[in-house]
Structures are given as structure tokens and as C-alpha cells.
Amino acid sequence: MFYIPFNRLTRISTYYLGCLLLTSLATIPVPALAANPDSDGQSLGQAANDPTASLMAIQIQDSYNGNFHQLKDEEANTVILRPVIPFKLGGVKNIARATIPYITDSPTGKTGLGDSVLFDLIVFDKPWGRWGVGPVALLPTASEDELGAEKWALGPALGFVAREKKFMWGLFNQNLITVAGDDDREDVNLSILQPIVNVSLPNKWSIGVSEMNATYDWNLNDWTNLPLGVKLSKLVKLGDQPVQFSGYYEYNFQDDYIAPEWTVNFTVKLLFPI
């Protein structure tokens, strides 16, 4: 296990550097990227923003939460590794994705590995885009009790993405329900809705909504996270390697529960068209 010493000045400097890097990418030539379409004709730039695309990728992102609702003078930072592996099973397209968080700062004062989320989406191509369905699972991989739910959870995932020229929109839903774990901890019973809106811009830029994971807690019968945000992305080639850089800001309008008030995120995604 490793530890990354983040203080407030370091985090703020990191995000200013990320924003500067994202802006400077406009000057990088991208002559060959348009010639790397997805297998069904989708451009690589659009596929990089499409969770249903059969595109192998390794994503590393850093998320900084500057304030918390219901907590005073608290902040947090999480580094997330998200590999995506498409494969076929019985001639049917599947997309396996893992989300593995490492918490470098939190209101609890603890740092370490958080709970991981795995899903396998079975996708079906349609003339208008794709839709998919499959299982999603929460794994209690947290290295400290305070950083995880101490529960195993399982449920269905369902979503679609529609495309028309340079515009893409859709909705993705994940549901997690406790199936095992520490009886002394509260059960997980969540539905997570993620809207998808993205517009391709000239020179391999794109703009859209942030991850915006609106979360409904069935134990509380209430929405516990209602974010609104915007994301800016740029696709480049570093040597022969396609890479997407993106940054987003989002604000959480649900302030009745302990949750991040606002989030700034910077992401690097390595793409491997197959």
C-alpha cells in the first residue's frame, strides 16, 4: 500500500496545472485520429465518451471535493483507476469495467483503498445507437472501515446511448443492493442515474455533462446526490497512442446529507481501438 501526501496547496496547484494542460492541447496537431473509427462507424472521439462503446481503455482520474454539505471546513481527494475491457461471449458483445478508488484525503482523516465497483454490460447495436444490460457489483475492498461500506452489493445495470452526427445522448442506471457483509453496518440500497450528453467540436474537442451520478438511497427514500456539471475533453495522439484528456466541474444541489458540495475532476484516458 502506498500513500500520496496531498495538502491543500498541492491539490489546488494540481488542478490549475490540469486546466492549463487541457487548454494547451488545442495546439497539438491530430491528423490521424479521424481515421480510427469504432467497429460500427463511430468516431474514436465520440466512442471515448460513450460507456457502451466496444473500446478498450485505461482511465486515471483525480477528483477533488472542495467542501462538504453538513460538514465545516472539510475536503477530500480520490484517485481512481478505471480499466475497460470489451469482449465477446457466445457472439454477444460485453463490456467489463472496474472502478478502483484510492482515497488520498477524506473527512475521516483516513487514507487508502476504497470499495471497488465492477460491472459487465451486454450491449446491442441499433441503427440509432446502442443499449445494454448486465450485472453490477460493489466489492468491500476498502483498506479502512471508515473508507467503505463493509458490504457486498449486487444489482442490475441498464442504459442506452443514442447518436446523431456529432451529438450523443443517453442514460445509464446502476442499482446496488446488499447481499452480504458486516451486520453492524447499514445496508447498501442505491440507484444511480447517470445522464449522458456530449457534443463533438472541431479539432477533436468535445463538451458535455460531467459524470453527474444522481443517487437515490432507498433506505432514506430520498435523493442523496443531485449534481450538475460540465465536462470539456480533448483527444490527441502521443506518438501512436490515442489519449483523451478531460476536466469537469460539478455542484451537488442536495444539501440535506453529508456529501461533497462541489467537485473538480481531471482525467487521462488511454485508448486502445480494437
Question: How would you describe this protein?
Answer:
With 274 residues, this protein is mostly beta strands. The protein has a single domain, classed as monomeric porin ompg (Porin), CATH 2.40.160.40. The chain has two helices and 15 strands. A twelve-stranded antiparallel barrel has the order 1-2-3-5-6-7-8-9-10-13-14-15. The two termini are 33 Å apart. The N terminus is likely disordered.
**Within the CATH hierarchy, at the fold level, what is the topology?**
Porin
Mean pLDDT: 87
Specify the CATH homologous superfamily: monomeric porin ompg
Structural classification: mainly beta
Radius of gyration from CA coordinates: 19 Å
* Largest sheet report: 12 strands, antiparallel, barrel
Shape-level CATH architecture = Beta Barrel
Number of domains: 1
Oligomer: single chain
**Which strand order do you get reading across the main beta sheet?**
1-2-3-5-6-7-8-9-10-13-14-15
- Proportion in β-strands: over 45%
Text of the CATH class: Mainly Beta
Q: How many β-strand runs?
A: 15
Task: Work out the helix count.
Answer: 2
CA(first)-CA(last) distance? 33 Å
Shape: globular
Write a concise keyword list for the protein shown above.
274 residues; mainly beta; Porin; twelve-stranded antiparallel barrel; 2 helices; 8% helix
Task: Explain the layout of strands and helices.
Elements: H1 8-24, H2 44-47, E1 56-69, E2 76-89, E3 92-105, E4 112-113, E5 116-126, E6 129-139, E7 151-164, E8 167-181, E9 189-200, E10 205-209, E11 214-217, E12 222-225, E13 227-238, E14 241-252, E15 259-272
Antiparallel strand pairs: 1-2, 1-15, 2-3, 3-4, 3-5, 5-6, 6-7, 7-8, 8-9, 9-10, 9-11, 10-13, 11-12, 13-14, 14-15
